[in-house]
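Message: A physicist's question: would you kindly supply an amino acid chain plus fold tokens?
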Amino acid sequence: MGIPDEKTIQKVRQWLTYADEDLRLASCAIKLRSNVPYRLIAYHAQQCAEKHLKAYLVSQGVDFPYTHNISTLLELCCEHEDWPASLRDAEELTRYAITTRYPGEDAEVTKPEVRHGIELAQQVRTAVRAALQERGLELG
């Protein structure tokens, strides 16, 4: 598939902007000195990875399902390129999509888990942006 049309490129850029906002929020929040909401930071790390993968799928013209499942999104990306297979560890982030946001579903999240989650989100970000740039997309 060639370079997407301008409308699609704008959508990709929007997904990337939202994803980067999630990562920025997570990266800043982990530096709080007290009452750190680790579960919410983990959620934003998951959202960063999810939105980056969806940005890639938008660039490919894939009508992806409404899902927070990183594994599902990676599988869809694998239908177009090989790089998503190297991101399987990011599947760990899926558990933060729902269980960290609602009472009764919440699981304790520790600072080391959050640090790892942010690292995984950054790996997804790097891989997706490299793939998009390889396709000739100017990300701005």
